[in-house]
Amino acid sequence: MQSESTDILTLDNVKTLVDDFYGKVRDNALLAPVFNDVIKDNWQSHLEKMYTFWQTILLETPTYSGSPFLKHAKLPIAKEHFDTWISLFNQTVDEHFTGEKASEAKWRAAKMSEMFQYKLDYYKNNPAQPLI
Hints:
By secondary structure, the chain is an all-alpha fold. The protein has helices at residues 11-27, 31-39, 43-59, 68-72, 79-96, 100-125. The model has no long low-confidence stretch (mean pLDDT 91).
């Protein structure tokens, strides 16, 4: 934990958030098996993508392109996975950062979690629909 909390203002701040958060994910009994099954030994590549994702969202630097939902659509995940994910994310933000961007990061993560859950539920209940 940093001795002084600051806001998320630089790429180094984003990397601190991403690295610490995914360290928690990798140690979590519920989330680690899901992530490790997909990512295997390509964690560094995944972290690099997450740096660009959060850099694009929080620092408004367009470094990420892609469709995150499709990569998650067929994973064996349920509400408890999302609840654990958002809890670890918020914990990580609070351990390192305070300020407007820190609050925005937690808000955006919560909205992504809600949207992913909604879409996953929709596709589970409508299997004939193509994934978007």
